[in-house]
Write the structure tokens for this entry.
Amino acid sequence: MNPAPDPSDYYRHHGMMTDPGEEAALYADLPPGVGDLRGVVQGLLVHALWAQRYGLAVDESREQELQLRSVEDKLRKVRMLDSGPLKIPRPPERRLLGNCRDFSLMLCSMLRHQGVPARARCGFATYFQPDHFEDHWVSEYWRDGSGWRMVDAQLDALQRKSLGIKFDPLDVPSDQFLVGGKAWRLCRDGKADPHKFGINELHGLWFVRGNLIRDLASLNKVELLPWDSWGLIEGKDEDLSHSDTALLDEVADLTQQGDGGFRNVRSVYESSATLRVPPVIKSYSKTGVKMVEIGRP
């Protein structure tokens, strides 16, 4: 493993999930700039949990769209739903069904395609429910002169009004979205209740652990579905060994260090079989658990 010497250069290039592949021609007429690209993403996707708010009734035949992992597969489906240019917003019924990870991944892909360093982050948002840390994904992009800026590509005008969002979604404050490592440390240090972290009936330290590892994988350009599982994501909290917990603590610290910890973020991921995404993973969905081959990341 030979870590990239410059993190901004590393995140300027696609990983296996953000590469548009054979659908790259769809990116030809995209506008430049994170604000306009955020608008394009919002015109292509509709969040499954918000669909009814947009007047969209989701039937079971479309739920499979939520299982599409790569941007290439998503763009192929986008083109099937509407063959028009991506920059023209589609009505909700012709948008791809997705979730927060998909909004973040798509924006990240478009930015990387334009040569802008970008990455998806997995963690918890404070702005969906009072006194609760909601399972969520956002994007980060590199802005010369000010470093990494956090963007919530999901928050359009309807959602901002409904949630009473006061901050600029193109510059999400760090206390409004906690990356997985920060959430893990707060819970482990007794500064936050792990049962306030999660989504719906799923919550607890085990959930925080999953987002910590998914965030590490995403920092290594392997951005998987929120319900994909492997290695140390699996198992109960009480089954973790002392060395497992120490490793997770180390990961939590490294993923919060910024670019100064970049080499170590790459190294700890590549050197640990319990952290690194394997060629075959488990995926949990409403239809059950299945083994999925994603190839060698």
